[in-house]
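Rotation project, supervised by the postdoc (A.L.). Task for the rotation student: set up a whole-complex structure prediction and record inputs and outputs verbatim in this book. Inputs entered:
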Amino acid sequence: MTDQAPQSADLTTWSATELAAGFRAGTVTAAEITEAHLARAERFDAGLGAFVQLDSAGARRRAADLDARRADGAPDLGPLAAVPVALKDNLMRAGHPTGCASRILADFVSPYDATSVARLEAAGAVLIGRTNMDEFGMGSSTEHTVHGPTHNPHDLSRTAGGSSGGSAAAVAAGFAPLAIGSDTGGSVRQPAAFCGIAGLKPTYGRVSRYGLVAYASSLDTVAPFARSVADLALCLDVLTAEDPRDPTSVAVSSGMTATTLEDGIAGLRIGVPAEAFALGVDPSTESAVRAALAALEGAGARIVPIDLPHTAHAVATYYVLCTSEASSNLARYDGVRYGHRARPAAGERPFDLDTMYARSRAEGFGTEVKLRILLGTYCLSSGAIDAYYGHATKVRALIRQDYTDAFASHCDLIAMPTTLGPAFELGGKVHDRIATYRSDALTVGPSLAGIPALSVPCGTTDDGLPVGLQLVAPAFDEATLLRAARAYEKVAPTLPRPSLPEPADPPAATGDQETDR
Amino acid sequence: MDAETVERLARLSQLELTEAEVTRARSELEGLLALFDSLRSVDVTAVTEAVAASGSATGPVDLALGAPVTAESAERSPHGRAGAAVRARTDAPDTPLEPSEVLRNAPARREDQFEVPRVVRR
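Outputs recorded:
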Protein backbone atom coordinates (compact mmCIF):
# COMPACT_ATOMS: atom_id res chain seq x y z
CA MET A 1 0.00 0.00 0.00
CA THR A 2 2.91 2.35 0.65
CA ASP A 3 4.03 1.80 -2.91
CA GLN A 4 1.01 3.66 -4.13
CA ALA A 5 1.21 7.41 -4.47
CA PRO A 6 -0.06 8.86 -1.21
CA GLN A 7 -1.85 11.72 -2.84
CA SER A 8 -5.32 10.26 -2.44
CA ALA A 9 -7.56 12.92 -1.00
CA ASP A 10 -8.61 10.46 1.69
CA LEU A 11 -6.06 10.78 4.50
CA THR A 12 -7.31 7.54 6.08
CA THR A 13 -5.65 5.62 3.24
CA TRP A 14 -2.24 7.13 3.97
CA SER A 15 0.38 5.22 5.90
CA ALA A 16 1.84 6.54 9.14
CA THR A 17 5.09 7.22 7.31
CA GLU A 18 3.25 9.30 4.70
CA LEU A 19 1.18 11.19 7.27
CA ALA A 20 4.24 12.06 9.36
CA ALA A 21 6.09 13.21 6.23
CA GLY A 22 3.11 15.26 5.06
CA PHE A 23 2.83 16.97 8.44
CA ARG A 24 6.57 17.63 8.53
CA ALA A 25 6.46 19.10 5.01
CA GLY A 26 3.45 21.20 5.85
CA THR A 27 1.19 19.68 3.19
CA VAL A 28 -1.31 18.47 5.80
CA THR A 29 -2.15 19.63 9.30
CA ALA A 30 -2.54 17.47 12.36
CA ALA A 31 -6.12 18.70 12.59
CA GLU A 32 -6.92 17.53 9.05
CA ILE A 33 -5.38 14.13 9.72
CA THR A 34 -7.16 13.74 13.04
CA GLU A 35 -10.54 14.88 11.71
CA ALA A 36 -10.36 12.46 8.78
CA HIS A 37 -9.69 9.48 11.04
CA LEU A 38 -12.21 10.47 13.72
CA ALA A 39 -14.88 11.02 11.07
CA ARG A 40 -14.29 7.57 9.61
CA ALA A 41 -14.34 5.92 13.04
CA GLU A 42 -17.45 7.83 14.10
CA ARG A 43 -19.19 6.84 10.90
CA PHE A 44 -18.30 3.17 10.70
CA ASP A 45 -17.29 1.83 14.09
CA ALA A 46 -20.82 1.13 15.27
CA GLY A 47 -20.80 -1.83 12.88
CA LEU A 48 -17.33 -3.05 13.87
CA GLY A 49 -16.88 -2.49 17.58
CA ALA A 50 -13.17 -1.76 17.30
CA PHE A 51 -13.20 1.02 19.88
CA VAL A 52 -14.26 0.88 23.48
CA GLN A 53 -13.87 4.64 23.66
CA LEU A 54 -12.94 7.13 20.99
CA ASP A 55 -11.14 10.07 22.58
CA SER A 56 -12.33 12.61 20.00
CA ALA A 57 -11.99 15.67 22.21
CA GLY A 58 -8.54 14.70 23.47
CA ALA A 59 -7.31 13.90 19.96
CA ARG A 60 -8.56 17.26 18.66
CA ARG A 61 -6.84 19.15 21.47
CA ARG A 62 -3.63 17.27 20.80
CA ALA A 63 -3.80 17.95 17.05
CA ALA A 64 -4.42 21.66 17.65
CA ASP A 65 -1.42 21.75 19.96
CA LEU A 66 0.82 20.06 17.37
CA ASP A 67 -0.34 22.46 14.67
CA ALA A 68 0.30 25.43 16.95
CA ARG A 69 3.79 24.23 17.80
CA ARG A 70 4.54 23.67 14.15
CA ALA A 71 3.29 27.16 13.30
CA ASP A 72 5.56 28.52 16.03
CA GLY A 73 8.49 27.00 14.18
CA ALA A 74 9.18 23.92 16.33
CA PRO A 75 11.87 22.16 14.28
CA ASP A 76 10.92 18.51 14.82
CA LEU A 77 7.87 17.26 16.66
CA GLY A 78 8.90 13.60 16.51
CA PRO A 79 8.85 10.66 14.10
CA LEU A 80 5.13 10.03 14.71
CA ALA A 81 4.08 13.69 14.81
CA ALA A 82 0.37 14.00 13.91
CA VAL A 83 -0.03 10.23 13.38
CA PRO A 84 -3.24 8.83 14.91
CA VAL A 85 -2.58 5.77 17.08
CA ALA A 86 -5.16 3.52 18.78
CA LEU A 87 -4.32 1.80 22.06
CA LYS A 88 -5.48 -1.57 23.33
CA ASP A 89 -7.47 -1.19 26.51
CA ASN A 90 -4.75 -2.83 28.63
CA LEU A 91 -2.19 -0.04 28.29
CA MET A 92 -2.18 2.61 30.97
CA ARG A 93 -2.55 6.23 30.00
CA ALA A 94 -2.48 8.73 32.85
CA GLY A 95 -5.88 10.18 33.62
CA HIS A 96 -7.67 7.85 31.20
CA PRO A 97 -9.64 4.68 31.92
CA THR A 98 -7.96 1.32 31.41
CA GLY A 99 -10.53 -1.44 31.52
CA CYS A 100 -9.05 -4.59 29.95
CA ALA A 101 -12.60 -5.28 28.70
CA SER A 102 -13.37 -6.49 32.21
CA ARG A 103 -16.10 -5.60 34.62
CA ILE A 104 -13.56 -5.73 37.43
CA LEU A 105 -11.77 -2.66 36.00
CA ALA A 106 -14.91 -0.88 34.82
CA ASP A 107 -14.19 2.34 36.70
CA PHE A 108 -10.42 2.21 36.79
CA VAL A 109 -8.51 5.36 35.84
CA SER A 110 -4.78 4.99 35.18
CA PRO A 111 -2.64 6.99 37.59
CA TYR A 112 0.39 6.87 35.29
CA ASP A 113 1.51 6.28 31.70
CA ALA A 114 2.79 2.98 30.37
CA THR A 115 6.32 3.52 29.09
CA SER A 116 5.22 2.69 25.55
CA VAL A 117 2.36 5.21 25.78
CA ALA A 118 4.74 7.91 27.03
CA ARG A 119 7.14 7.10 24.18
CA LEU A 120 4.37 7.36 21.57
CA GLU A 121 3.29 10.73 22.93
CA ALA A 122 6.89 11.96 23.06
CA ALA A 123 7.20 10.91 19.41
CA GLY A 124 4.28 13.18 18.53
CA ALA A 125 1.50 10.59 18.13
CA VAL A 126 -2.16 11.57 18.46
CA LEU A 127 -3.78 8.93 20.67
CA ILE A 128 -7.33 8.55 19.40
CA GLY A 129 -8.91 5.93 21.58
CA ARG A 130 -8.97 2.65 23.43
CA THR A 131 -9.69 -0.57 21.56
CA ASN A 132 -11.65 -3.70 22.38
CA MET A 133 -9.98 -6.94 23.45
CA ASP A 134 -10.57 -10.28 25.10
CA GLU A 135 -10.76 -9.73 28.84
CA PHE A 136 -7.20 -9.33 30.19
CA GLY A 137 -5.91 -10.68 26.87
CA MET A 138 -7.46 -14.10 27.44
CA GLY A 139 -8.95 -15.21 24.16
CA SER A 140 -8.37 -15.46 20.44
CA SER A 141 -11.53 -13.80 19.12
CA THR A 142 -12.34 -10.59 21.04
CA GLU A 143 -15.59 -12.23 22.11
CA HIS A 144 -14.71 -12.54 25.80
CA THR A 145 -15.33 -8.85 26.43
CA VAL A 146 -17.87 -6.81 28.39
CA HIS A 147 -18.22 -4.55 25.34
CA GLY A 148 -19.50 -7.15 22.88
CA PRO A 149 -17.43 -8.64 20.07
CA THR A 150 -15.30 -6.86 17.50
CA HIS A 151 -16.24 -7.72 13.91
CA ASN A 152 -13.80 -8.43 11.13
CA PRO A 153 -13.80 -5.52 8.64
CA HIS A 154 -13.44 -7.98 5.75
CA ASP A 155 -16.48 -10.03 6.83
CA LEU A 156 -18.65 -8.73 9.65
CA SER A 157 -19.93 -12.19 10.54
CA ARG A 158 -16.41 -13.24 11.46
CA THR A 159 -14.04 -12.52 14.31
CA ALA A 160 -11.33 -9.91 14.00
CA GLY A 161 -9.18 -12.32 16.00
CA GLY A 162 -7.86 -11.71 19.47
CA SER A 163 -7.04 -10.80 21.95
CA SER A 164 -6.06 -7.49 20.30
CA GLY A 165 -8.99 -7.66 17.86
CA GLY A 166 -10.09 -4.06 18.34
CA SER A 167 -6.67 -2.66 17.47
CA ALA A 168 -6.44 -4.90 14.39
CA ALA A 169 -9.90 -3.97 13.16
CA ALA A 170 -9.21 -0.25 13.71
CA VAL A 171 -6.11 -0.36 11.49
CA ALA A 172 -7.70 -2.56 8.83
CA ALA A 173 -10.76 -0.28 8.69
CA GLY A 174 -8.68 2.89 8.32
CA PHE A 175 -9.58 4.39 11.70
CA ALA A 176 -5.85 4.72 12.45
CA PRO A 177 -2.70 3.83 10.51
CA LEU A 178 -1.12 2.42 13.67
CA ALA A 179 -2.44 0.66 16.73
CA ILE A 180 -0.77 -0.89 19.73
CA GLY A 181 -1.79 -4.29 21.01
CA SER A 182 -0.17 -6.85 23.23
CA ASP A 183 1.00 -10.29 22.15
CA THR A 184 1.35 -12.99 24.80
CA GLY A 185 0.82 -16.07 22.62
CA GLY A 186 -0.24 -14.57 19.29
CA SER A 187 -2.66 -11.82 20.29
CA VAL A 188 -1.24 -9.41 17.71
CA ARG A 189 -0.05 -11.77 14.96
CA GLN A 190 -3.32 -13.74 14.74
CA PRO A 191 -5.68 -10.72 14.52
CA ALA A 192 -3.26 -9.12 12.03
CA ALA A 193 -3.55 -12.23 9.86
CA PHE A 194 -7.35 -12.33 10.21
CA CYS A 195 -7.76 -8.64 9.36
CA GLY A 196 -5.27 -8.52 6.48
CA ILE A 197 -2.72 -6.20 8.09
CA ALA A 198 0.78 -6.46 9.54
CA GLY A 199 1.52 -7.14 13.21
CA LEU A 200 4.81 -7.59 15.01
CA LYS A 201 5.60 -9.30 18.30
CA PRO A 202 9.00 -7.94 19.35
CA THR A 203 11.64 -9.91 21.22
CA TYR A 204 10.71 -10.27 24.89
CA GLY A 205 12.67 -7.47 26.56
CA ARG A 206 12.85 -5.10 23.58
CA VAL A 207 9.81 -3.01 24.52
CA SER A 208 9.09 -2.12 28.13
CA ARG A 209 6.09 -3.82 29.71
CA TYR A 210 5.77 -1.12 32.36
CA GLY A 211 2.15 -0.02 32.41
CA LEU A 212 0.90 -2.97 30.37
CA VAL A 213 -1.65 -4.75 32.55
CA ALA A 214 -0.04 -8.10 33.36
CA TYR A 215 -1.51 -11.36 32.11
CA ALA A 216 1.41 -13.81 31.75
CA SER A 217 4.51 -11.88 32.66
CA SER A 218 7.12 -14.20 31.14
CA LEU A 219 5.34 -13.98 27.77
CA ASP A 220 3.62 -10.57 27.54
CA THR A 221 4.92 -8.12 24.93
CA VAL A 222 3.73 -4.71 23.72
CA ALA A 223 3.26 -5.06 19.98
CA PRO A 224 2.30 -2.79 17.05
CA PHE A 225 -0.14 -3.17 14.12
CA ALA A 226 0.15 -1.31 10.81
CA ARG A 227 -0.93 -1.59 7.19
CA SER A 228 2.66 -1.57 5.95
CA VAL A 229 5.96 -3.03 7.06
CA ALA A 230 7.64 0.39 6.99
CA ASP A 231 5.06 1.64 9.49
CA LEU A 232 5.73 -1.33 11.78
CA ALA A 233 9.44 -0.49 11.71
CA LEU A 234 8.73 3.19 12.35
CA CYS A 235 6.58 2.33 15.35
CA LEU A 236 8.92 -0.34 16.72
CA ASP A 237 11.84 2.08 16.63
CA VAL A 238 9.79 4.51 18.74
CA LEU A 239 8.82 1.81 21.25
CA THR A 240 12.27 0.23 21.59
CA ALA A 241 14.02 1.28 24.79
CA GLU A 242 15.60 -0.06 27.89
CA ASP A 243 13.43 1.00 30.80
CA PRO A 244 14.58 1.04 34.41
CA ARG A 245 10.95 0.44 35.39
CA ASP A 246 10.90 -2.94 33.63
CA PRO A 247 13.88 -5.01 34.77
CA THR A 248 13.33 -7.50 31.93
CA SER A 249 13.82 -4.78 29.33
CA VAL A 250 17.12 -4.83 27.53
CA ALA A 251 19.37 -2.22 26.00
CA VAL A 252 19.28 -3.02 22.29
CA SER A 253 22.46 -1.94 20.57
CA SER A 254 21.05 -2.41 17.05
CA GLY A 255 18.09 -0.23 17.85
CA MET A 256 16.89 1.00 14.48
CA THR A 257 15.10 -1.26 12.05
CA ALA A 258 13.78 1.32 9.58
CA THR A 259 17.20 2.13 8.10
CA THR A 260 17.86 -1.33 6.58
CA LEU A 261 14.32 -1.98 5.42
CA GLU A 262 15.02 -1.72 1.70
CA ASP A 263 18.24 -3.75 1.67
CA GLY A 264 16.65 -6.84 0.13
CA ILE A 265 16.97 -10.52 0.98
CA ALA A 266 19.48 -11.87 -1.54
CA GLY A 267 20.97 -15.05 -0.10
CA LEU A 268 18.89 -14.96 3.10
CA ARG A 269 18.15 -18.50 4.28
CA ILE A 270 14.52 -18.97 5.25
CA GLY A 271 13.70 -22.16 7.14
CA VAL A 272 10.35 -23.86 6.67
CA PRO A 273 9.40 -26.31 9.43
CA ALA A 274 7.50 -29.33 8.15
CA GLU A 275 5.95 -29.72 11.62
CA ALA A 276 4.06 -26.45 11.24
CA PHE A 277 2.19 -27.71 8.19
CA ALA A 278 1.41 -31.02 9.90
CA LEU A 279 -0.89 -29.41 12.48
CA GLY A 280 -3.95 -29.27 10.26
CA VAL A 281 -3.46 -26.10 8.22
CA ASP A 282 -6.48 -25.34 6.03
CA PRO A 283 -5.56 -26.16 2.39
CA SER A 284 -6.42 -22.74 1.04
CA THR A 285 -4.30 -21.08 3.77
CA GLU A 286 -1.47 -23.47 3.00
CA SER A 287 -1.50 -22.67 -0.71
CA ALA A 288 -1.40 -18.92 -0.02
CA VAL A 289 1.58 -19.43 2.27
CA ARG A 290 3.34 -21.75 -0.20
CA ALA A 291 2.89 -19.07 -2.86
CA ALA A 292 4.45 -16.56 -0.46
CA LEU A 293 7.45 -18.85 0.04
CA ALA A 294 7.89 -19.05 -3.71
CA ALA A 295 7.70 -15.26 -3.89
CA LEU A 296 10.38 -14.94 -1.20
CA GLU A 297 12.54 -17.31 -3.23
CA GLY A 298 11.88 -15.16 -6.28
CA ALA A 299 13.07 -12.15 -4.29
CA GLY A 300 16.41 -13.85 -3.68
CA ALA A 301 15.93 -15.88 -0.50
CA ARG A 302 16.87 -19.54 -0.18
CA ILE A 303 14.13 -21.75 1.21
CA VAL A 304 15.51 -24.55 3.39
CA PRO A 305 13.61 -27.32 5.19
CA ILE A 306 14.13 -27.31 8.96
CA ASP A 307 12.88 -29.24 11.98
CA LEU A 308 11.17 -27.82 15.04
CA PRO A 309 10.54 -31.19 16.65
CA HIS A 310 8.56 -29.97 19.68
CA THR A 311 6.09 -27.84 17.72
CA ALA A 312 3.14 -30.13 18.49
CA HIS A 313 3.67 -29.57 22.25
CA ALA A 314 3.69 -25.79 22.12
CA VAL A 315 -0.04 -25.29 22.77
CA ALA A 316 -0.17 -27.43 25.91
CA THR A 317 3.07 -25.90 27.21
CA TYR A 318 1.83 -22.41 26.56
CA TYR A 319 -1.52 -22.92 28.29
CA VAL A 320 0.02 -24.51 31.40
CA LEU A 321 2.36 -21.55 31.75
CA CYS A 322 0.04 -18.70 30.84
CA THR A 323 -2.77 -19.91 33.11
CA SER A 324 -0.31 -20.43 35.97
CA GLU A 325 1.06 -16.93 35.56
CA ALA A 326 -2.43 -15.49 35.14
CA SER A 327 -3.67 -17.05 38.35
CA SER A 328 -0.84 -15.29 40.19
CA ASN A 329 -1.08 -11.99 38.35
CA LEU A 330 -4.83 -11.67 38.72
CA ALA A 331 -4.69 -12.24 42.47
CA ARG A 332 -4.20 -8.48 42.71
CA TYR A 333 -7.88 -7.87 41.87
CA ASP A 334 -9.24 -8.11 45.36
CA GLY A 335 -11.71 -5.25 45.49
CA VAL A 336 -9.59 -3.33 48.01
CA ARG A 337 -7.30 -0.84 46.27
CA TYR A 338 -8.99 -0.55 42.91
CA GLY A 339 -11.50 -2.34 40.72
CA HIS A 340 -14.94 -3.72 41.37
CA ARG A 341 -16.03 -4.44 44.93
CA ALA A 342 -19.11 -6.56 45.61
CA ARG A 343 -21.66 -5.06 48.01
CA PRO A 344 -24.11 -7.00 50.12
CA ALA A 345 -27.62 -6.98 48.70
CA ALA A 346 -30.36 -5.25 50.66
CA GLY A 347 -31.00 -7.31 53.78
CA GLU A 348 -27.84 -9.40 53.32
CA ARG A 349 -25.33 -9.53 56.21
CA PRO A 350 -22.18 -7.42 55.78
CA PHE A 351 -19.41 -9.42 54.08
CA ASP A 352 -16.40 -10.66 55.94
CA LEU A 353 -13.07 -10.08 54.16
CA ASP A 354 -12.92 -13.47 52.39
CA THR A 355 -16.48 -13.19 51.15
CA MET A 356 -15.77 -9.69 49.89
CA TYR A 357 -12.76 -10.97 47.92
CA ALA A 358 -14.47 -14.02 46.49
CA ARG A 359 -17.74 -12.24 45.62
CA SER A 360 -15.94 -9.26 44.06
CA ARG A 361 -13.90 -11.54 41.84
CA ALA A 362 -16.93 -13.68 40.99
CA GLU A 363 -18.85 -10.59 39.88
CA GLY A 364 -15.88 -8.89 38.23
CA PHE A 365 -14.31 -11.62 36.10
CA GLY A 366 -15.83 -13.23 33.01
CA THR A 367 -16.16 -16.96 32.37
CA GLU A 368 -12.92 -17.41 30.43
CA VAL A 369 -10.86 -15.53 33.01
CA LYS A 370 -12.35 -17.54 35.89
CA LEU A 371 -11.61 -20.79 34.12
CA ARG A 372 -8.01 -19.82 33.42
CA ILE A 373 -7.51 -18.78 37.05
CA LEU A 374 -8.85 -22.15 38.24
CA LEU A 375 -6.68 -24.01 35.76
CA GLY A 376 -3.58 -22.04 36.70
CA THR A 377 -4.29 -22.51 40.39
CA TYR A 378 -4.48 -26.25 39.75
CA CYS A 379 -1.17 -26.27 37.81
CA LEU A 380 0.54 -24.46 40.69
CA SER A 381 -1.09 -26.37 43.56
CA SER A 382 0.98 -28.61 45.76
CA GLY A 383 0.89 -32.13 44.38
CA ALA A 384 0.44 -30.86 40.79
CA ILE A 385 3.08 -28.16 40.40
CA ASP A 386 5.93 -30.48 39.40
CA ALA A 387 3.82 -32.48 36.97
CA TYR A 388 2.31 -29.42 35.29
CA TYR A 389 4.07 -26.09 35.84
CA GLY A 390 7.53 -27.56 36.46
CA HIS A 391 7.29 -29.99 33.58
CA ALA A 392 6.03 -27.31 31.18
CA THR A 393 8.95 -25.01 31.99
CA LYS A 394 11.26 -27.80 30.85
CA VAL A 395 9.33 -28.45 27.65
CA ARG A 396 9.54 -24.71 27.09
CA ALA A 397 13.34 -24.99 27.24
CA LEU A 398 13.20 -27.71 24.56
CA ILE A 399 10.95 -25.60 22.34
CA ARG A 400 13.34 -22.69 22.67
CA GLN A 401 16.25 -25.03 21.90
CA ASP A 402 14.52 -26.08 18.65
CA TYR A 403 14.61 -22.47 17.46
CA THR A 404 18.16 -21.93 18.73
CA ASP A 405 19.37 -24.97 16.83
CA ALA A 406 17.59 -23.99 13.63
CA PHE A 407 19.06 -20.49 13.68
CA ALA A 408 22.52 -21.72 14.67
CA SER A 409 22.84 -24.26 11.89
CA HIS A 410 20.30 -23.86 9.13
CA CYS A 411 18.58 -20.54 8.59
CA ASP A 412 18.42 -16.81 9.24
CA LEU A 413 14.63 -16.65 9.51
CA ILE A 414 11.76 -19.09 9.78
CA ALA A 415 8.55 -18.88 7.74
CA MET A 416 5.20 -20.58 8.35
CA PRO A 417 1.50 -19.70 8.39
CA THR A 418 0.43 -17.38 11.20
CA THR A 419 -2.78 -19.34 11.76
CA LEU A 420 -4.21 -22.74 10.86
CA GLY A 421 -7.05 -21.12 8.92
CA PRO A 422 -8.76 -17.80 8.23
CA ALA A 423 -10.98 -15.81 10.60
CA PHE A 424 -13.73 -18.00 12.00
CA GLU A 425 -17.40 -17.15 12.43
CA LEU A 426 -18.28 -15.14 15.55
CA GLY A 427 -19.75 -17.55 18.07
CA GLY A 428 -18.21 -20.42 16.17
CA LYS A 429 -15.48 -21.47 18.55
CA VAL A 430 -16.39 -19.67 21.70
CA HIS A 431 -17.95 -22.79 23.19
CA ASP A 432 -15.16 -25.16 22.18
CA ARG A 433 -12.29 -24.13 24.38
CA ILE A 434 -9.83 -26.80 23.33
CA ALA A 435 -10.38 -26.06 19.63
CA THR A 436 -9.80 -22.37 20.34
CA TYR A 437 -6.63 -23.06 22.28
CA ARG A 438 -5.37 -25.39 19.55
CA SER A 439 -5.89 -22.67 16.96
CA ASP A 440 -2.96 -20.80 18.57
CA ALA A 441 -0.63 -23.65 17.55
CA LEU A 442 1.62 -21.61 15.24
CA THR A 443 2.01 -18.40 17.23
CA VAL A 444 2.77 -19.74 20.73
CA GLY A 445 6.15 -21.27 19.81
CA PRO A 446 7.98 -17.97 19.20
CA SER A 447 6.27 -16.57 22.33
CA LEU A 448 7.63 -19.40 24.47
CA ALA A 449 11.06 -18.88 22.92
CA GLY A 450 10.90 -15.12 23.57
CA ILE A 451 11.91 -14.35 19.98
CA PRO A 452 10.46 -11.85 17.50
CA ALA A 453 7.82 -12.83 14.97
CA LEU A 454 5.49 -10.94 12.65
CA SER A 455 2.54 -11.58 10.41
CA VAL A 456 2.21 -9.97 6.98
CA PRO A 457 -0.75 -10.38 4.62
CA CYS A 458 -0.12 -13.02 1.94
CA GLY A 459 -3.24 -13.05 -0.17
CA THR A 460 -6.55 -14.68 0.60
CA THR A 461 -8.24 -18.03 0.90
CA ASP A 462 -10.53 -19.20 -1.89
CA ASP A 463 -13.34 -17.43 -0.02
CA GLY A 464 -11.48 -14.13 -0.10
CA LEU A 465 -10.49 -14.05 3.57
CA PRO A 466 -7.04 -12.67 4.44
CA VAL A 467 -4.18 -15.08 5.15
CA GLY A 468 -1.06 -14.23 7.16
CA LEU A 469 2.52 -15.28 6.55
CA GLN A 470 4.47 -15.56 9.79
CA LEU A 471 8.18 -14.80 9.84
CA VAL A 472 10.29 -15.56 12.91
CA ALA A 473 13.80 -14.30 13.72
CA PRO A 474 16.48 -14.86 16.37
CA ALA A 475 16.27 -12.69 19.48
CA PHE A 476 16.67 -8.98 18.82
CA ASP A 477 17.00 -9.45 15.05
CA GLU A 478 13.89 -7.45 14.20
CA ALA A 479 15.93 -5.63 11.55
CA THR A 480 16.28 -8.79 9.44
CA LEU A 481 12.69 -9.79 10.21
CA LEU A 482 11.29 -6.48 8.96
CA ARG A 483 13.66 -6.35 5.98
CA ALA A 484 12.41 -9.74 4.81
CA ALA A 485 8.80 -8.75 5.41
CA ARG A 486 9.35 -5.59 3.39
CA ALA A 487 10.93 -7.57 0.53
CA TYR A 488 7.90 -9.85 0.55
CA GLU A 489 5.41 -7.00 0.79
CA LYS A 490 6.71 -5.59 -2.51
CA VAL A 491 5.73 -8.76 -4.37
CA ALA A 492 2.72 -9.82 -2.27
CA PRO A 493 -0.82 -9.89 -3.66
CA THR A 494 -2.63 -6.68 -2.72
CA LEU A 495 -5.72 -6.89 -0.56
CA PRO A 496 -8.67 -4.65 -1.35
CA ARG A 497 -9.55 -2.18 1.37
CA PRO A 498 -12.52 -3.60 3.27
CA SER A 499 -15.78 -1.96 2.25
CA LEU A 500 -17.62 -1.07 5.41
CA PRO A 501 -21.40 -0.89 5.54
CA GLU A 502 -22.93 2.57 5.79
CA PRO A 503 -24.62 3.07 9.14
CA ALA A 504 -28.39 3.40 9.09
CA ASP A 505 -28.32 6.64 11.07
CA PRO A 506 -25.04 8.50 10.82
CA PRO A 507 -24.27 9.88 14.26
CA ALA A 508 -24.47 13.66 14.42
CA ALA A 509 -22.58 14.05 17.68
CA THR A 510 -18.83 14.35 17.42
CA GLY A 511 -17.90 14.57 21.08
CA ASP A 512 -16.54 11.79 23.23
CA GLN A 513 -18.54 8.66 22.98
CA GLU A 514 -18.46 5.95 25.57
CA THR A 515 -20.05 2.96 23.99
CA ASP A 516 -21.51 0.25 26.12
CA ARG A 517 -22.21 -2.52 23.71
CA MET B 1 -12.03 -33.84 38.37
CA ASP B 2 -14.63 -34.02 41.15
CA ALA B 3 -16.71 -31.15 42.48
CA GLU B 4 -14.70 -31.13 45.69
CA THR B 5 -11.46 -30.42 43.77
CA VAL B 6 -13.09 -27.60 41.84
CA GLU B 7 -14.41 -26.13 45.08
CA ARG B 8 -10.95 -26.35 46.63
CA LEU B 9 -9.46 -24.57 43.60
CA ALA B 10 -12.16 -21.92 43.87
CA ARG B 11 -11.27 -21.33 47.52
CA LEU B 12 -7.56 -21.10 46.69
CA SER B 13 -8.42 -18.69 43.86
CA GLN B 14 -10.75 -16.57 46.03
CA LEU B 15 -13.58 -17.10 43.55
CA GLU B 16 -17.19 -17.71 44.48
CA LEU B 17 -18.66 -20.17 41.98
CA THR B 18 -22.29 -21.10 41.43
CA GLU B 19 -23.25 -24.76 41.28
CA ALA B 20 -23.64 -24.47 37.51
CA GLU B 21 -20.15 -22.96 37.23
CA VAL B 22 -18.70 -25.81 39.29
CA THR B 23 -20.33 -28.36 37.00
CA ARG B 24 -19.11 -26.58 33.89
CA ALA B 25 -15.60 -26.15 35.30
CA ARG B 26 -15.37 -29.86 36.09
CA SER B 27 -15.77 -30.90 32.47
CA GLU B 28 -13.75 -28.01 31.06
CA LEU B 29 -10.82 -28.58 33.43
CA GLU B 30 -10.89 -32.30 32.77
CA GLY B 31 -10.59 -31.74 29.02
CA LEU B 32 -7.83 -29.19 29.39
CA LEU B 33 -5.83 -31.30 31.84
CA ALA B 34 -6.03 -34.15 29.33
CA LEU B 35 -4.46 -31.78 26.79
CA PHE B 36 -1.79 -30.85 29.34
CA ASP B 37 -1.14 -34.50 30.13
CA SER B 38 -0.01 -34.99 26.54
CA LEU B 39 3.20 -33.24 27.63
CA ARG B 40 4.13 -36.24 29.74
CA SER B 41 5.33 -37.98 26.59
CA VAL B 42 8.12 -35.41 26.31
CA ASP B 43 11.35 -36.63 27.87
CA VAL B 44 12.73 -33.79 29.97
CA THR B 45 15.47 -35.70 31.75
CA ALA B 46 18.48 -33.43 32.08
CA VAL B 47 16.54 -30.42 30.82
CA THR B 48 16.90 -27.22 32.81
CA GLU B 49 13.64 -25.40 33.21
CA ALA B 50 13.01 -22.14 31.39
CA VAL B 51 11.02 -19.96 33.70
CA ALA B 52 10.99 -16.87 31.56
CA ALA B 53 11.19 -15.81 27.98
CA SER B 54 14.87 -15.24 27.67
CA GLY B 55 15.76 -12.42 25.38
CA SER B 56 18.57 -14.56 24.09
CA ALA B 57 17.80 -17.41 21.77
CA THR B 58 21.28 -18.76 22.21
CA GLY B 59 21.93 -18.30 25.90
CA PRO B 60 20.47 -19.95 28.95
CA VAL B 61 17.74 -18.41 31.02
CA ASP B 62 18.21 -17.01 34.43
CA LEU B 63 16.48 -19.39 36.78
CA ALA B 64 15.90 -17.11 39.71
CA LEU B 65 14.23 -14.22 38.03
CA GLY B 66 14.32 -14.95 34.35
CA ALA B 67 16.05 -12.00 32.82
CA PRO B 68 17.17 -12.02 29.24
CA VAL B 69 20.85 -12.81 29.19
CA THR B 70 23.02 -10.43 27.22
CA ALA B 71 26.71 -10.75 26.56
CA GLU B 72 27.41 -7.77 28.79
CA SER B 73 25.23 -8.89 31.67
CA ALA B 74 26.79 -12.35 31.52
CA GLU B 75 30.24 -10.85 31.86
CA ARG B 76 29.18 -8.83 34.87
CA SER B 77 27.47 -11.73 36.59
CA PRO B 78 29.48 -13.68 39.14
CA HIS B 79 27.59 -16.77 37.98
CA GLY B 80 28.41 -16.46 34.29
CA ARG B 81 25.77 -16.68 31.59
CA ALA B 82 23.37 -18.81 33.58
CA GLY B 83 23.37 -16.40 36.46
CA ALA B 84 23.19 -13.17 34.55
CA ALA B 85 20.07 -12.00 36.20
CA VAL B 86 17.62 -9.21 36.16
CA ARG B 87 19.51 -6.09 37.02
CA ALA B 88 18.45 -4.91 40.36
CA ARG B 89 16.69 -1.58 40.31
CA THR B 90 18.85 1.27 41.55
CA ASP B 91 18.24 1.66 45.25
CA ALA B 92 17.20 5.27 45.00
CA PRO B 93 14.03 7.04 46.06
CA ASP B 94 11.54 7.70 43.28
CA THR B 95 8.61 10.07 43.33
CA PRO B 96 5.65 8.06 44.57
CA LEU B 97 2.08 8.71 43.49
CA GLU B 98 0.19 11.24 45.57
CA PRO B 99 -2.12 9.57 48.11
CA SER B 100 -5.06 11.23 46.38
CA GLU B 101 -4.03 9.59 43.09
CA VAL B 102 -3.66 6.19 44.73
CA LEU B 103 -7.00 6.48 46.50
CA ARG B 104 -8.82 7.74 43.44
CA ASN B 105 -9.57 4.17 42.35
CA ALA B 106 -10.41 2.85 45.81
CA PRO B 107 -13.85 1.23 45.92
CA ALA B 108 -14.16 2.26 49.58
CA ARG B 109 -12.01 4.65 51.57
CA ARG B 110 -11.95 6.50 54.83
CA GLU B 111 -9.74 9.56 54.96
CA ASP B 112 -6.39 8.51 53.47
CA GLN B 113 -6.96 4.80 53.81
CA PHE B 114 -8.58 1.88 51.99
CA GLU B 115 -11.61 0.66 53.85
CA VAL B 116 -12.11 -3.10 54.19
CA PRO B 117 -14.50 -5.30 56.13
CA ARG B 118 -13.49 -5.75 59.79
CA VAL B 119 -10.92 -8.55 60.08
CA VAL B 120 -10.68 -8.79 63.86
CA ARG B 121 -13.51 -9.59 66.20
CA ARG B 122 -14.70 -6.97 68.60
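Student's summary: Chain A touches chain B through 83 residues (CB under 8 Å).
Supervisor addendum: The radius of gyration of chain A is 22 Å.
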